[in-house]
Design brief:
Blueprint: H1 2-19, H2 25-33, H3 38-47, H4 56-64, H5 69-80, H6 82-85, E1 108-113, E2 116-119, E3 123-124, E4 126-127, E5 146-151, E6 158-159, E7 163-168, E8 179-186, E9 189-194, E10 216-219, E11 222-227, E12 234-239, E13 245-251
Parallel strand pairs: 6-13
Antiparallel strand pairs: 1-2, 1-7, 3-13, 4-5, 5-9, 7-11, 8-9, 8-12, 10-11, 12-13
Helix pairs in contact: 1-3, 3-5
Length: about 250
């Protein structure tokens, strides 16, 4: 009876007693040779500081000494430290997608500055002379000559050349229906005269405000237009087939 009580007390206090010393591979082997159960040995490993050899040779030596896989796994986990037991770190949140001007489908104009694209806000223009009928079904640019009127003496956007613009066109709108226009400042407004039907590359009396450009196709319904250095200072605007809307900007003096 007395021996049974002593054995019971040994099993209870053994992990605590051993925990006062640093455990290693040899200490684990001694516990196994002493006939302690895997549960007691694992508890001792978890409760005690340890300096274990978990190289291939160290683990083989434990196995050859009769140490069970359960105990060896506890040794490896203890040697790896708390980081090995922690939950995997959550993947960093994906950064917001940078604005891209290449999603065609609706009319828009963007400009490139410091290797970033910024979308422009259009201004409204009104027809100054009467008798003009616009074909809204085709986007608004196949029409008679337009005398446009924009409120305000200057655009809110001022740029310096050289500068690249990106034009996204509505489906079915040909690039020849788009125009870059030189605007005339008149008192507290800007005015222009544009030709319908596409006068992009020519300068005629009816399209005298059209600025010749060389669009470069970069995607379906998407083009880039670069204004070279030396472009005359003043007010400009892009018509891209959207009724009553013009994308304006000011070119600063160099």
């Amino acid at each position: 009876m007395r021996k049974g009580v002593l054995a019971f007390l040994f099993l209870i206090f053994c992990p605590w007693l051993i925990a006062q010393q640093t455990m290693n591979n040899d200490a684990v082997i001694k516990l196994v040779k002493a006939g302690l159960s895997d549960t007691v040995i694992v508890s001792t490993i978890n409760a005690s500081p340890g300096a274990y050899d978990t190289t291939a040779n160290g683990l083989i030596a434990l196995k050859q000494a009769g140490v069970s896989d359960k105990v060896i796994a506890a040794v490896v986990a203890k040697a790896a430290g708390p980081a090995a037991l922690a939950a995997p770190a959550a993947a960093p949140a994906a950064a917001p997608a940078a604005y891209s001007p290449f999603a065609a489908g609706v009319a828009s104009v963007s400009y490139e500055q410091s290797n970033q694209w910024t979308e422009m806000d259009p201004e409204r223009y009104s027809i100054k002379t009467g008798g003009l009928l616009k074909s809204l079904a085709t986007g608004g640019m196949r029409m008679a000559d337009i005398n446009g009127h924009i409120s305000g003496k200057a655009s809110k956007l001022a740029v310096k050349t050289p500068i690249t613009f990106h034009l996204s066109l509505p489906p079915g709108t040909p690039i020849d229906d788009c125009q870059l226009l030189k605007l005339h400042v008149n008192k507290n407004n800007r005015e222009f005269r544009a030709a319908g039907g596409g006068y992009l590359h020519v300068s005629t009396d009816s399209a005298k405000d059209a600025v010749p450009i060389s669009p470069k196709k970069v995607a379906p319904q998407a083009y880039e237009v670069t204004l070279p250095a030396g472009t005359a200072a003043g007010e400009y605007g892009f018509l891209v087939g959207q009724p009553d809307q013009i994308y304006t900007f000011s070119v600063s003096a160099q």
